[in-house]
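Here we describe the complex-level prediction in full. Unlike the single-chain runs in Section 2.1, the two entities below were treated as one system.
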Amino acid sequence: MNVLVTGGSGFLGRHLVPRLLSLGYSVRMLDVSDASWRDPKVQFITSSVADESILNSAVSGCEAVIHLASSVIPKTSNDNPLLDARTNLVGTLKLLDASVNAGVRRFIYASSGGTVYGEPSVACVREDHPTDPICSYGIVKLAVEKYLALYQRLYGLESVSLRISNLYGEHQRHDTGLGVIATFCHKAVTGKTVEIWGDGTVSRDFIYVGDVVDAFAAGLAFEGQNLVANIGSGTSVSLNTILETIEGLTGNEVSKTYLPARAFDVHRTCLDVSLAGQKLGWRPRTSLGEGIERVLEVMARES
Amino acid sequence: MNVLVTGGSGFLGRHLVPRLLSLGYSVRMLDVSDASWRDPKVQFITSSVADESILNSAVSGCEAVIHLASSVIPKTSNDNPLLDARTNLVGTLKLLDASVNAGVRRFIYASSGGTVYGEPSVACVREDHPTDPICSYGIVKLAVEKYLALYQRLYGLESVSLRISNLYGEHQRHDTGLGVIATFCHKAVTGKTVEIWGDGTVSRDFIYVGDVVDAFAAGLAFEGQNLVANIGSGTSVSLNTILETIEGLTGNEVSKTYLPARAFDVHRTCLDVSLAGQKLGWRPRTSLGEGIERVLEVMARES
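The structure predicted for the assembly as a whole is:
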């Protein structure tokens, strides 16, 4: 089966594409940036999803599309919601139209468990929790999910939206402010001081990238019309616990500075992942200790 | 207070603008079409909301914006979701950005009680009912509501989104397939045959335009940061009952043809309007009989 992966040059794509190849899929990649790696078995197309002229040929012959591309991150999406809507919502609709025209059967979408719900009203949110995003990134992700349900109804395009929690793993960038585990591990390995906003009790649902790759593979094989499912660890871990885990694994104390809390940080996030268990047969397999150990190993080797 | 009304040339605007003037507001109108009426007290700007070049001057000096404009209707929005998102979502974000830059204090949005919920799972839907639209029109309305909440949070722009049910009243067009009461009344007055899709038991929450105008006036005076409220009659009336009401008022039997039901018609819609009562002090005042009588009177006079 031919699969188009958009945004494949990023952190998640670097883990996902080799897995897809090992499962026997033929992979074509569409990304505005070149990947840091090359594989002769993968066809690379360097272009934006918002560029209509390339989309028809990009999806041609593909039975599935995995849509990871996004031109913004949650934190910066509120700087320019208009740009976010134009590139990511309108761009995705262009990709959907091209997919329908090309006869694509299934569309797997990287949605966002950290932003579509907004402020959680329960300890661990299920997919039917109210969706009141507090950033444009989450509003766009949610609108795309609803368009996917509509396109299934109108055109029979099957879809799976994975509401992924806080992703971490080897080769995640440590300099973008996106991956707190990558940032903390890098500071620990290089002996720098970790900056913590607030008292470190802020907690997140961290999910290892290999487990998320499992979820995309399960999404491709899913027998159903339209699914929206949380993909996370099902637990919430504080920043202080992350630091203690890193200290335990490295055997060294990490230098820390506590800074004033940021107004836009939700205190705790946690996803209930039982639906993904029922529908996709998926569950998180990698403990936080194992995952962080792998991150530290690769960092130590590469630094 | 200066108020900009977008889409003011349509049916709702024709009722709303005179009311705003009588309440002492100064009104500026922005519409892509000329209105069928003129009032020397109203400043008309003929332009699309999606035209960025005009927006800054259109909102300049306004303390409130009432956004009625939409380039699509529910039924046709699925023909081209990409166009809908481009003109109505992106266009509204442009209007929001211009409003924030001009120091607009309040934004009143004509949302859609008939499309944002999708298939209702209860007899009468409250605002916290799941929102799974089955047309692009509803997806865009919902996304705009969420952007309004975000803009309140980011920029202090206060907003009221009115999820209006099936609107009817004098001067509604009878030839667009939008207003079933206008269409039925026109057929009755002109002695033509009414076409009913299905057996006539399909029922809708019909709300008289004068009552909706009351809701917009209440929205302008609302003391609060962000509100999303249903505006409907709180009851559901079948097409057969509408026809019986028309027959009772005209004293003539209406000629009818029953056609096969349409797959996309939800069987019953009804909005719970208690939130609008609590927050806006609003309630529907006009009975269906009174409202239809006014429609028939104007039609008889003008035909």
